């Protein structure tokens, strides 16, 4: 499946940021109204600021982060990225579901993680770093 050109460019930028360890360009590929769907929260976090905060923090929490596979949807606007990482002594596997708009901006970033022990470690580490901040970004019911 072929990604739409703007999506392909943004995804390439995302992979460059991950490889370099420098996510400073992240705001340039996130839509103002983007949402982040956490594997540990019921409601999504709304706004580009929330998405950038969560992704930057997760990148700092993860150790040995590696993407393994990438799949695209038929419309060329969404990707599924399989990854593995460690949080402390816990190993985890996960999937990033990323939806872009036609301008190539991230509009929805959803993460799923397994096993439960890895998810717990991730939730605790994220909560310790940004728990107080991120609650303000919860989307209304």
Amount of beta strand: 35-45%
First-last Cα distance: 35 Å
The CATH class designation is Alpha Beta
Cα radius of gyration in angstroms? 14 Å
* Strand segment tally: 6
Biggest beta-sheet profile: 6 strands, mixed
Spans of at least 5 consecutive residues with low confidence = none
Task: Specify the number of helices.
Answer: 3
Protein structure class:
alpha+beta
The percentage helix is 25-40%
Task: Write a structural description.
The protein is α+β, with helices and mostly antiparallel strands and about 140 residues long. The chain is about 35% helix and about 35% strand. Helix 2 packs across helix 3. It has a single domain, classed as Roll (Nuclear Transport Factor 2, Chain: A), CATH 3.10.450. It has a 6-stranded mixed sheet with strand order 2-1-6-5-4-3. A hairpin with a 7-residue loop joins strand 1 and strand 2 (about 45). The chain has helices at about 5-20, 50-60, 115-135; strands at about 30-35, 45, 65-70, 80-85, 90-100, 105-115. It contains 3 helices and 6 strands; from the N terminus they run H-E-E-H-E-E-E-E-H. The chain is globular and about 40 Å long.
